[in-house]
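Sequence design from tokenized structure. All designs in this work follow the same two-part layout: the structure record, then the generated sequence. An example of the structure record is given first.
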């Protein structure tokens, strides 16, 4: 089969399309014929050796996949060949390949109304937005939610998830992306290139921060008493000072980490199937263009997601 392999830590040039042996599913696993693989910031951070999760080369990168079950291993129930599925995997046996073995309990069915390219864009970003807002923050109707980088992969899904739970949603994004975000349901938008959000918003119940750096301490200043800052950035500065500042001010701070969950994946794709969650795919590239996909993702200017198609 064809697969992307990374033989060394470095820039996008270390990614190669190679021929490797197709794996076989073990007990409790399924073999998935990958049709599409989402690209996330975590992919290039792992490639560059800056992610929390250190992976030693050689390995196949990629966290997000959608495809069709090709074969099931022993002890697998509930899935059979031909089923459309999506979910998360982790290097060294990543998603950017024609076939990948996945634990059966890490995959959720994809309804017929959801395209596999769209499904492949959902796992990591969708789980991050869903779990941080629904599981961690317990977002509810009437709350004011501030989402930084609202047009990004996590951000544009978080806007919709917060709205689906009845929140008033404020987003930070460049002005050129405000129309896109209004269409997704954002109530208020701040162009961070011309306006300091700390001067434009107050009395926020939840802040979702995928940026870190100085956004953490600045975000604390806009929270209402007892408010919550959820930091979803995988890498960045030490958060000890932010945590201490939050405690001193009677605020809550959570450094969030995504966890694969079939039940959450099922809820996310059900919301997409009924039209309550639209995933924006800015570009679909062939698997061989993985280096270009990494470069685009690393630019920080992607609206929504990039997906690699695996025909």
């Amino acid at each position: 089969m064809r697969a992307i392999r990374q033989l060394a830590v470095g820039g996008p040039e270390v990614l190669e399309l190679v021929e490797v042996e197709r794996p076989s599913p073990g007990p409790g696993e399924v073999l998935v014929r990958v049709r599409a693989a989402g690209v996330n910031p975590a992919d290039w951070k792992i490639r560059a050796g800056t992610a929390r999760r250190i992976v030693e080369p050689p390995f196949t990168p990629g966290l997000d996949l959608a495809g069709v079950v090709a074969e099931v291993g022993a002890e697998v129930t509930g899935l059979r060949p031909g089923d459309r599925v999506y979910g998360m995997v982790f290097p060294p046996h990543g998603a950017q390949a024609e076939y990948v073995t996945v634990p059966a309990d890490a995959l959720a069915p994809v309804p017929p109304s959801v395209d596999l390219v769209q499904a492949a864009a959902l796992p990591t970003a969708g789980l991050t937005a869903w779990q941080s807002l629904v599981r961690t923050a317990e977002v509810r109707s009437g709350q004011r939610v501030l989402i930084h980088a609202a047009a990004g992969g996590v951000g544009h899904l978080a806007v919709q998830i917060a709205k689906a739970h009845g929140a008033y949603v404020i987003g930070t994004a460049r002005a050129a992306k405000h129309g896109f975000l209004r269409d997704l349901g954002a109530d208020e938008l701040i162009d961070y290139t011309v306006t300091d959000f700390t001067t434009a918003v107050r009395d926020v119940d939840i802040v979702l921060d995928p940026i870190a750096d100085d956004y953490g301490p600045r975000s604390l200043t806009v929270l209402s008493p007892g408010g919550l800052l959820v930091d979803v950035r995988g890498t960045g500065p030490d958060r000890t000072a932010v945590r201490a500042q939050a405690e001193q001010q009677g605020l809550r701070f959570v450094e969030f980490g995504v966890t694969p969950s079939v039940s959450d994946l099922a809820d996310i794709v059900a919301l997409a199937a009924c039209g309550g969650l639209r995933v924006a795919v800015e570009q679909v590239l062939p698997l061989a263009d993985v280096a270009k996909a990494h470069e685009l993702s690393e630019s920080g200017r992607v609206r929504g997601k990039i997906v690699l198609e695996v025909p």
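DSSP finds ten helices and 15 strands in the chain. We note this feature because it recurs in several other targets discussed in the main text.
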